[in-house]
Design brief:
Helix content is 31%, strand content 23%. It contains eight helices and eight strands. A hairpin with a 2-residue loop joins β1 and β2. The longest helix is centred in the C-terminal third of the chain and has 16 residues. Bound molecules: adenosine-5'-triphosphate. InterPro entries: AAA+_ATPase, ABC_transporter-like_ATP-bd, ABC_transporter-like_CS, ABC_transptr_haem_export_CcmA, P-loop_NTPase.
């Protein structure tokens, strides 16, 4: 795992054909973190969602070196070797936290990590395995969704504001999880306004977009339909 790396090769991210940010030219190696910074609307989430395979790059490429997928073959896509934790929790409110984590462990497959109860203990939620996810407070929900990172071992963690709802103690605990991940050859790519203990991390700053490029954005019909369904 020591020689593995993720490289952004003239990567341009956006929605459909419209570029939002980039080109990015940077590499992150095993044991390293990349912190993505920038003002609201700059394109941090767009970049992370592209890395997670949820959006297609507008240009350029994501190149992988030495990253091995669950089947033992070199990974073809970053999503196959990555955990993505976005703004949404990805947990069903009506089923227990343990069942949610068991679902994720099965869905992600690959190298087994901690059992759900141990993963919950790692985020300071020991003993509440059988509580429905929807009963938790905002900060507890965030911590439970971060426990996903521990139930299956994956080399690359893609994290979008992972500690937004967390109190100080929980932020510190999570910083410890990230540090352990890096120490064991993991890679973390995170948009975060909190330090996360990543003082040594490389920073990728995305500047503010100008008004003209904001106005030129096309509406993503699929996202709009999802938003309307939710409202
Ligand atoms: N579904 C969508 N369709 C079209 N444009 C979108 C869509 N989602 C986001 N955008 C636009 O893409 C740009 C970048 O948004 P993005 O969410 O990546 O920013 P961000 O840097 O993560 O911001 P924040 O700090 O507020 O989370 C914004 O101009 C936003 O309006």
């Amino acid at each position: 795992m020591t020689s593995s790396q993720v490289a952004l090769d003239a990567l341009i991210v956006g929605r459909a054909e419209t570029a939002v940010a980039g080109p990015f030219e940077i590499a992150v190696k095993a044991g390293e973190a990349l912190v993505v910074t920038g003002p609201n609307g700059a394109g941090k989430s767009t970049l992370l969602r592209t890395l997670a395979g949820l959006l297609r790059p507008v240009g350029g490429a994501i190149r992988l070196n030495g990253l091995i997928a669950a089947d033992g073959e070199p990974a073809a896509r970053l999503a196959d070797v990555a955990h993505y934790v976005g703004h949404r929790h990805g947990m069903k409110p009506q089923i227990t936290i343990a069942d949610n984590l068991t679902f994720w462990a099965r869905y992600l497959g690959g190298a087994p990590g901690l059992r759900p109860s141990a993963a919950l203990a790692a985020v300071g939620l020991a003993g509440i395995d059988d509580v429905p996810f929807g009963y938790l407070s905002a900060g507890q929900q965030r911590r439970a969704s971060l426990a996903r990172l521990a139930v299956v071992r994956r080399t690359v963690w893609i994290l979008d504001e992972p500690t937004a709802a967390l109190d100080l103690a929980s932020q510190e605990r999570f910083a410890g999880m990230v540090a352990d991940h890096l120490r064991t050859g993991g890679i973390a790519i995170a948009a975060t306004h909190h330090p996360l203990g990543l003082d040594q991390a490389e920073t990728l700053h995305i500047p503010a977009r100008d008004a003209a490029s904001e106005a030129a954005m096309t509406i993503d019909e699929a996202d709009l339909a999802t938003a309307e369904g939710w409202l």
